[in-house]
Amino acid sequence: MTGDLGELLTYPFMQRALVAALLLGLVCPLLGSVVVIRRMAYFSDAVAHFALPGIAIALAFNWDMGLFLTFFCIAIALIIFWIKDHSPVATDALIGVFSSGAIAAGVVLMSNSDGGQAQVMGFLFGDILAVNNQDLGLLSLMTAAVGLFMVLTFRAQILINFHPDLAQVNQIPVERINYIFIFLLAWVVATAIKVVGALLITAFLVVPGAFARQNAQSFTQMLWIGPLIGVTGAVIGVLASAVLDIPSGPMIVLVLVACFLGSVLTGQIRTFHS
What we know:
mainly alpha
C-alpha cells in the first residue's frame, strides 16, 4: 500500500489535489469557525443547495460551470442575507424556504436537461483529482483574500460574534463586515463544491469549526485549531481515497467527522473521570 501511495504522489494530478486540499483545509475552517459561532450552518447549506439550479442553468446555456456557479452563489447569498435582515420571518424558516426551493428548482431544471450527468455528479459529490492549475490559482487567491479579511477584521469579529451590541456602540461597520463575510463565504462554498461536492460542502465548513469550538478556549485558538484539523482531515482524506480508490469528498468529510467524534468522546471521558 505504501508503495502504491508513493507512486501516486509522483503524478501531477495527485500533487495538485494535495495542494487544493491544503488550501481548502485552511480557508474553510477560518470561515467555518465564524459560521459555527453565529449558527449559520443552514445559511451555507442553502447557498450550496442553490448550486443545483446553477448547474442546470450553466448546462442549459453551455456556460463555464465553475465561473457561473461562483457568481450565481455569491449573488444568491447576498440576496438571501439582505432578505434575512429585512424580513420579519424567523431566520431558520426563511432559509428553509430558500433551501427547499433551490432543490426543487434544481430537480425541475435538470429533468429538462440533456446530458451532462457526469458533470452534475461531479459537482454534487466533488472530484479533487480533477483540479487543474487554474483552479489552484483561484484557490490561492481566495485563501489570501479570506486570510487578509480575518486579519484586518479580527478585533471587530470578536465584538460582532460575541458582543454585537458593543460592536454597534463602538461604531464598528457591522453591516459592511457582515456583507463582505457573506461574499467570501459564498465564494468559498462555490469554489469548494468542485472538491467536496454540493452535498458535503457544509460539513467541510462546519465540522472543523465545531471541532475548534469543542477544544478552543478563545476565538484566537479557534482560528488556528480549525485550520489545523481542516488541513489534517483534507490531506488524510485525499491520500486515503487515492489508496482505497473511493471518492475523495466523502472520505475527507468522514475523516473530519471521525476527528470530531473522537474529540467529543475524549471530552466525555475526561468529564467522567473528573
